[in-house]
Design a protein that fits this description.
- It is a single chain.
- By secondary structure, the protein is an alpha+beta fold.
- The protein has two domains: 60 residues, 434 Repressor (Amino-terminal Domain) (Orthogonal Bundle), CATH 1.10.260.40; 84 residues, no CATH class.
- The protein contains seven helices and seven strands, in the order H-H-H-H-H-H-E-E-E-E-E-H-E-E.
- The strands form two sheets. The protein has a four-stranded mixed β-sheet, covered by helices on one side. It has a three-stranded antiparallel β-sheet with strand order 1-2-5, with no helix packed on it.
- Strand 1 and strand 2 form a beta hairpin.
- Helix 2 packs across helix 3.
- The longest helix is centred in the middle third of the chain and has 44 residues.
Length: 204
Amino acid sequence: MKIGTIIKEKRTKLGLTQDDLAKKLQVSRSTISNWEINRNYPDIKLIVNISNILEIPLKELLQEDSDIVNRLSEDTIIRKRISKRNKMLYFLIFVLIINFLSVVIYFSNINDISKKKEIVDAYISNEKLCIKTDLPIHKSIGGYFMDVNNNTLEVSLFTKLSFKHNEKISIPITKIPITKDKLKEIKGIRFIYNGHNYKTISLE
């Protein structure tokens, strides 16, 4: 006996309409109708619910209809394939995320400004070192180190990953131990990277 026929007989015996059963299973009435004329079959989850609602042993529902058993077997195989594909997809997404984070970390760790073209201009005004930069859009100045050597202000600049893209920065020179008289004697600004001078700006 087909599963649709079993469902119809048991539903009728319990005094349930197709609408009643549809509401209990949260499906449409036409879905129930299609099952009962054996046009299509419920999936395994619905079969379990049908078994409970219509008080039909699950074994009875399945063993009478070899077609649905075969279909459920095929569905199980398909679900396993889909599950395997989903796992592969999740793995690929995970790898892409890791690669993206690696790139972000890589660029965020390239912190020192070391190119001459990245420093557009620099000057001293009101005891502040004013610097205009030309940095990539993902970088902003995040820190600095200053010292005075032979009437030259030596500066090392560090960047951070930021899309604020601050092109100008003012640094109070008074943060380093220097007197106002010494400040007046500064003749130039030297930008340092790894101990090497990559740009010098004269203040004379």
